[in-house]
Structures are given as structure tokens and as C-alpha cells.
Design goal:
Blueprint lengths: L1 H17 L6 H14 L1 H26 L6 H84 L3 H80 L4 H22 L1
């Protein structure tokens, strides 16, 4: 049902809009979702409520026309007026259908971009982890060399050995700094990957909700156009119809109103 799909879509859009996201496609996705949350989705909700109210009033008017012996002239005028009303509703729905489809397609493209960005982040993290492992091994080797050289220096105090110790210590300090930089990069990228993962999951769920909402809205537009055409055709025939035939027209229209009411709901 449209109301269920719309409610779910709005809930998921709110989740995406509240997420902390890294720069790039995730930020662009959140921006478009926020815009839809503030504009498109409330407009769909308003139009749904307006159509629901108009359909209920039209159904009540058609049912009233079918009480007793309907007057062909009055019925024809009422059906023509209601038909025009549903044509106006269809005109209001058409741009919303187009916009929800474009929003869904844009979000799917952003989600694909985020998936690619996730793969790139994981590749960079793997490279950094490998570099950190290499630096750690290098640091451990330097520490071992420094210890051995220091022991040798105690036994054979030579200037060359002292120079080697000093050089090893300096090189070790450089290695420690490189390890620190690698750790900082890994922490930053892990945080970015976590944020990206959260928004990707949320956008995927939102995309699934839109896959329900977009066709539901299209079906509603189709049903509204069908009812409008039904009313217009029956209005043209009602003026010359016998009371019995007119009651059949009105009964058929009552069924059409019920079907449209289900679509709106």
C-alpha cells in the first residue's frame, strides 16, 4: 500500500539525513535525501491525503445519487464535475511520479559510488597495514641490532661502534615516526570506512523502500486517470440513460471508487 511504503521511506530518509558521513558520494547522497525529506516526500504525503479526501467525498456523492431513482441530468452534471476533479488530481500526481523515479535512480547511482569508494578504502587500509607491518619488523630489527652493538661496545669500546649505535637510534626514531603516521592514517580511514558503511547500508534500505513507493505512486496515478476517464464517459452517457441503466453506471462507479480508495490507502 502507498501509505505503508511512504511511511517507511520517510523513516529511512530521516535515518540517512541524521548520519555523520565522509566527503564524496556519501555526502552527496545525504544532501539529496535531506532535500527529498524536506520537499518531495511531504508533497507526496499531502497529495495522497488530498486525493484520499477527494475520493471519499466523490464516493459519498455517487452513493447519494444512486439512492432512489437517480435524475439523469443531475447525475450527468455531477459525474462530469467529479471527472474533472480526478483529472486535476492526475495532473498533480504526474510530476511527483517523475520526481520520485529520478530520486530513486540518483540514490542508486550514489549507492554504487559508495560501494566503489568502500572497496578503495579497504584497498588503502590493506596497503597501510602491510606497510605498518614492514615498519614494525624494521623497528624490531633495529632494536636488536642496537642491543647487540651496545653489548659489543661494552666489550670493545670503539668510536665506530658508538657511531653505529647513534645512527641506529636516529633511524629507529624515524621508523617510529613513520609507524605513528601509519597508525594515524589507519585510524582515520577506519573511521571513514565505518561512516561510509553505515550510510551505504541505510541508503540501500532506503532504495528498497523507494522500489516499493515509486510503483505504488505510479499505480495510484494510473488508477486516478482510469477513474477520471470512467466518470467522464459515464457523464456523457448518463444524460440519456434510463434510470435502471443509470443505477448500473453509478454502481460500477461506486466499485471504482472503492478500488481507488484502496490504492490511496
Amino acid at each position: 500500500m502507498l501509505s505503508v511504503a511512504l511511511r517507511l521511506t520517510r523513516q529511512l530518509a530521516g535515518i540517512v539525513a541524521d548520519l555523520t558521513v565522509p566527503p564524496g558520494p556519501a555526502a552527496a547522497a545525504r544532501e539529496s535525501v535531506t532535500a527529498a525529506q524536506d520537499g518531495l516526500l511531504p508533497q507526496i504525503a499531502d497529495e495522497r491525503a488530498g486525493l484520499q479526501d477527494f475520493t471519499a467525498r466523490a464516493a459519498a456523492e455517487i452513493a447519494a445519487l444512486n439512492v432512489g431513482t437517480p435524475a439523469p441530468g443531475a447525475a450527468a452534471d455531477a459525474l462530469h464535475r467529479l471527472g474533472q476533479g480526478f483529472e486535476e488530481q492526475k495532473t498533480l500526481l504526474a510530476p511527483l511520479v517523475d520526481r520520485i523515479n529520478r530520486f530513486r535512480d540518483a540514490l542508486a547511482a550514489r549507492s554504487a559510488d559508495m560501494t566503489r569508494q568502500q572497496a578503495e578504502l579497504q584497498s588503502r587500509l590493506a596497503a597501510l597495514a602491510a606497510e605498518r607491518t614492514r615498519l614494525s619488523s624494521q623497528r624490531d630489527e633495529l632494536r636488536t641490532r642496537t642491543t647487540i652493538t651496545s653489548i659489543v661496545g661494552i666489550l670493545i669500546p670503539l668510536v665506530k661502534i658508538a657511531d653505529e649505535i647513534a645512527g641506529a637510534v636516529q633511524y629507529g626514531e624515524t621508523t617510529e615516526a613513520a609507524i605513528g603516521r601509519a597508525d594515524a592514517q589507519i585510524a582515520r580511514l577506519n573511521s571513514e570506512a565505518q561512516e561510509l558503511g553505515s550510510v551505504t547500508v541505510a541508503c540501500t534500505a532506503l532504495g528498497s523502500a523507494l522500489d516499493q513507493l515509486a510503483p505504488a505512486l505510479q499505480n495510484l496515478a494510473n488508477a486516478t486517470a482510469l477513474v477520471g476517464g470512467h466518470l467522464t464517459n459515464d457523464a456523457a452517457r448518463a444524460a440519456a440513460a434510463t434510470p435502471t441503466t443509470l443505477k448500473l453506471y453509478l454502481a460500477s462507479l461506486t466499485t471504482a471508487m472503492a478500488v481507488l480508495g484502496d490504492s490511496v490507502g
